Amino acid sequence: MNEIATIPHKIIGVAVIWNDKKQILIDRRLPKGTMANLWEFPGGKIEPGETIEECIEREILEELGIKITVGKHLITIDHTYPHLRVTLTVHHCHHLDGVPQAIECAEIRWVSLDELDDFDFPEANVEIIAALRNN
Question: Per UniProt, which keywords does this protein have (predicted)?
Answer without folding.
Answer: DNA damage, DNA repair, DNA replication, Hydrolase, Magnesium, Metal-binding, Mutator protein
